[in-house]
Design brief:
This protein is an alpha+beta fold and about 375 residues long. It has helices at about 10-25, 30-35, 45-55, 70-85, 90-105, 110-120, 185-190, 230-265, 280-310, 310-340, 350-360, 365-380, 380-385, and strands spanning about 125, 140-145, 150-160, 165-175, 180-185, 195-200, 210-220, 225, 270, 275. One of its GO terms (molecular function) is acyl-CoA dehydrogenase activity.
């Protein structure tokens, strides 16, 4: 159950959306998601190899000069929406939506890294500040300079998609407080006792999290990709871009809650009639559609604003989209459970999967609270005094 939207996309964007919808419906349906997560938080490695390597989804937003498709944020938003709708168990958000823009924003000659990401050769994870913000104030990792490079100390409570990552982007502060960005290769550090990634068993098993500990880890000077303003700008770009793409993912999940509910209401018979024929059920489904469409307009508009590269406007649009998408997913997940009746919360039915995603995603990157605070501090005067 999906309507058109006033925001215009090109033919290429529509083709990306339609092909992603069909592919994920076939390869990341409910049964596939359950198979992957039965033993705990995990990735669908076969699906990741297909979408990153064969289909080239990681390069959708990247410039053609590095092997990407050049479709920018609008193209990536459409992919994220479809991935969220299917709760695809792949590290796409961390790789294409956070790590890639971080490298673009921090590293002057990021081409070699971006080429490998566009080709689907690497799965990247990023250590974001524990306070949920985009400033280095929330960075808890320190880097000491020595004769051979650097020594890293510190920890991160939760790192999305860190398990199995080829690259780990780690922000740190140097001895004098200067911000820096490091790139670590977990596979090469697996036997080093000073480096530890510990998988976490979480509520939402479709997105694995891990804790990171760096206890005097020595790294060469080449591991430091950026320092100073470049590191600061890269973190901010990664955070805001990730916030936008997280909203797109939440939008897709909310749409699936609506679709599942409408489908169930058409099949569930009560008092000799499908429950979807009752006015009270129709009204509740209609309200779900209203909040989904409002979120879709906000997310698509934010993607266009990001592409226009007007930072102040884009950030406000992203905050509005984040709040709308978070509200939509929470509301639709709750309504899906209620309108499925007595079976809505059971393991055999899918609404519980989306309810868990709603609860987890609502805490990432500071949740709606950070977005509302930013709007309150930076929105137009009329908003702040209303």
């Amino acid at each position: 159950m999906e309507s058109s939207n006033s925001v215009e996309f090109g033919v290429e964007h529509q083709m990306v959306r339609d092909s992603a919808r069909d592919y994920l419906a076939a390869h990341s349906d409910s049964a596939a998601v359950r198979r992957v997560t039965e033993a705990g938080p995990a990735h669908d490695h076969a699906l990741w190899q297909a979408i990153a390597g064969e289909l080239g989804w990681c390069g959708i937003a990247l410039p053609e000069a590095v092997g990407g498709a050049g479709l920018g944020a609008p193209g990536l938003v459409l992919l994220q929406e479809q991935l969220g709708q299917r709760l695809a168990c792949v590290p796409f958000w961390s790789t294409a939506c956070v790590a890639a823009p971080w490298l673009q924003g921090s590293v002057g000659h990021s081409g070699p890294w971006l080429e490998r990401l566009a080709a689907g050769e690497c799965h990247a994870a990023a250590v974001l500040p524990d306070d949920g913000g985009w400033h280095y104030d929330g960075v808890r990792i320190a880097a000491q300079v020595n004769a051979n490079g650097f020594v890293l100390h510190g920890s991160a409570a939760q790192v999305a998609d860190a398990a199995g990552a080829d690259w780990l982007l780690v922000p740190a502060r140097l001895d004098d407080g200067e911000p820096a960005l490091f790139l670590l290769e977990p596979a090469a550090l697996a036997q080093d006792a000073r480096f530890a990634l510990a998988p976490l068993d979480t509520l939402d098993r479709t997105r694995p999290l891990a804790s990171l500990r760096l206890d005097g880890l020595a790294v060469p000077a080449s591991a430091c990709l950026a320092r100073g303003d470049a590191a600061v700008q890269g973190l901010a770009q990664a955070w805001w871009h990730g916030k936008l793409m997280l909203a797109a993912e939440q939008l897709g999940a909310a749409q699936q809650c609506l679709d599942l509910t409408v489908g169930y209401a058409a099949e569930r018979i009560q008092f000799g009639r499908a429950i979807g024929s009752f006015q009270a059920v129709k009204h509740r489904c209609a309200q779900m559609m209203v909040v989904v469409e409002a979120a879709r307009s906000a997310v698509y508009g934010a993607a266009q604003a990001w592409e226009a590269a007007v930072v102040a406007e884009a950030r406000l649009e992203i905050c509005a989209a984040a709040v709308a998408a978070d509200d939509a997913l929470r509301f639709c997940a709750q309504e899906a459970i209620q309108l499925h009746g007595g079976v809505g919360f059971t393991w055999e039915y899918d609404p519980q999967l989306y309810f868990k995603r709603a609860q987890a995603a609502g805490q990432w990157l500071g949740g709606a609270g950070v977005a509302l605070a930013y709007i309150a501090d930076n929105g137009p005067q009329a908003w702040r005094t209303a």
